[in-house]
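During the reporting period the student researcher (J.K.) took over the structure-prediction task from the postdoctoral fellow and processed the backlog of single-chain submissions. One of the processed entries is reproduced below for the supervisory committee.
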Amino acid sequence: MNPRRLPPDSAEIPAALALIRAAFAYMDRIVDPPSSIHRMDEPALRAEAARAELWVIGAPGALAACGLFTPHADALYLGKLAVAEDRRGEGLARALIDHAAHRARALGLPCLELQTRVELAANHAAFAAMGFAQVAETAHPGYDRPTSLTFRKPL
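J.K. obtained the following structure tokens:
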């Protein structure tokens, strides 16, 4: 279950994108506004992998989990955290988050940060169980109510 980093030119980028799309698909009927995953294509994920760090768990051709780690001034931001549906419950998200904590420490960052949609209460509970606490609410452009919650985990 050791995460490995995919470079932007990796032949596995399409598989990582497919994993993210599949893992986020259930949100289509729940979240408003729609997920940003609908705007992500292969060139966009390659650009993200160049700007940030794209980490995956699983053998080539059998990716089970992935996430984007983006260093910010005061935190390592975790984005597009995705686990294959048939691999949920195996601790893969926790393994990626543990690896993100290792990366944050190596980069001299004091905490991890992520966002999840207001409607995804199960995600809120899962992140709280892993030591994250809600620190902010944000609204997408054009919305007069919170649409996302920001969580942080000190290291």
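The committee noted the following: The chain has a mean pLDDT of 96.
J.K. will present the remaining backlog at the next meeting.
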